Write the C-alpha cells for this entry.
Amino acid sequence: MERIVMHLSLKHRRNKMNRHIFVLSLLGCLCACAKLPSNFKKCNRKQSDFNDCFFKAVEHAIKQLNVPIKEVGLPNLDPLYVPKMSVGAGNSAAAFEQNYNNMTLTGFTKNKCTKVEINFEAKTMHVECGTPEIVMAFDYEFKGRILLLPIKGKGPGSVTIVNSKNSLTFKYEEYVKKGQKHIKVVESKFSWTPERLVFKLENLFGGDKAIDDNINQVFNDNWKELNDDVGPSYDEAFGKIFASIANDFFSRISMSELFDDE
C-alpha cells in the first residue's frame, strides 16, 4: 500500500511539473512570438517607398494609442500616465523644487508629424511632430522661489502646453533573443518647444484665492523664462519615459515582425 501511495504521489508531482513546464513554455513562446497589432501598418525595408511607408506607419500607430495594447507592452499614450516625477530647482526663474504625483498628459494622439526617419546604419530613429494642445494634470508640491517671490503649495494643478513642436530621437542597439533580432534603445533625446504655457495651480499658500490668482499670473506672465530655466530637466525626464515605453514594445516585437523583411 505504501508503494502504491508513493507511486501515485510521484506521478501527481510529475504531472504537476509537466503542467508548469507547459505553462512556462507557452508564456515564453508568447513573449518571443508577439505579433504586430493588426491595426498597425507594416513596412518592408526592400520596398521602394519604405521611408514614406514608415512615416505613415509611425503616425498611424501613435493615433491608435488612446487605448493600451498590453500584448505588445504599449500603454495609453492619450492619456499618458506618469505615477511620480521630480524636477530639481532651476538656476534663476524657477528656483523651486517640483514634485508631482498621478500625472496625466492628454493630447499626444492629436500629433501631426512632419518628420519620421530611421537610419539602420547609424541605428537611430527620429520623430518630429506638432501637437495643438497637451494638458498636463497632476498633484503637485512646490517649495522655493519663482523669480524673487517665495512659493509654497501642495494640491491639484495643470499646465497646458500650446502648439508644441516635439522632437524625439532614439539611439538603439540590436541584440538576439530566442533566435530573433530585437532593438534596444540605449540613448534618448526629447524636447518640446511650446508657443505658450498656461499654468493653473490650486492651494498655493493654503488656498488663499487672491494669492493663488496672483502667483498663477506670475507663472503665466513669465512662462518663457520658466521654460528656459527648467525645460531641459523635463526634456530629460520625458526622454527616459518614452525610451522605457519603446523598449517594452521592442522587447516583444522582433525586427523581422516589425519590418517584415528580416
Q: What stands out?
A: Residues 1-14, 16-32 have pLDDT under 50 and may be disordered.
